[in-house]
Amino acid sequence: MRRRLLFLGLGSAIALFIVGICLDSGGPGGKVNYFSSLQVFAQDKKKAFGPETMIREENIFLCGDVEEVARKKVKSLPVNDEKGLNDLYGAQGFNLNYGSNEIVAQRKVDEFCGYHRNFRHLGIHDDKVAIYQGPMGYNQKLLRLEEKMPVQTLSAEYQVKLQQVMDFFQMTPETQAMLRYEFEFQNEDALNAILENLDELQEE
Description:
By secondary structure, the protein is α+β, with helices and mostly antiparallel strands. It has helices at 2-24, 36-42, 82-90, 156-166, 173-183, 188-195, and strands at residues 54-60, 66-73, 95-98, 102-108, 120-125, 128-133, 142-150, 184-185. The strands form two sheets. Strands 2-1-4-3 form a four-stranded mixed β-sheet, covered by helices on one side.
C-alpha cells in the first residue's frame, strides 16, 4: 500500500514538472518555470465588463425581499468604461457587484415589498401599544400609537409578549411562531378586529 502511494505521488510530481515545461519552455531565453501550472489555477476570475455585458437591477426592500426591476446591456448606457458605470449607478444609490457573466446593481429602498406592504404588527413605542407596518421583526415604519393603551395597563403576560415582539429576532423559532400568530396581521381589517377587543386585556 505504501509503495502504491509513493508511486502515485511520484507520478503526480512528474506530471506537474512536464506541464510546467510545456507551458513555459518557449519563453524568452528558454527559461523553464516549473510552477506555471499552479499559476494557471491561481489566476483571478475576470470581471464581466463590455458592451454586451448584461446588468441586472434589483431593489432590496426593508423586509429583505429582493425584486428585479430591469435588465439592460452596458452598450445602452452613456458610459465608456467601468468608472463611468460605477459613477452612473452610484448617483442613483446602487451598489455594483461584478460577476464573471453579468453585473448586479442593487439598492436599498425605504419601503416594504408588494406582499409585505399591507402587513401590520403590534409592538411598543413610548410605553404605548404601537402599530407597525410590515412583518414582525421590522419596526422601521411606525404607523400610529394607541394613545389610550399604555403598556403598563395590560396584563403582565401581554406586556412580556409585546416586549418579545420588539426583540423578535432574538426569540426561539417556537416563540416567533407564537408571536406571529397573536400579533402579526396580513391586512388592516384583521388588525382592527383585534384592536376592538384589546381593551379586554387591560387590567382594572
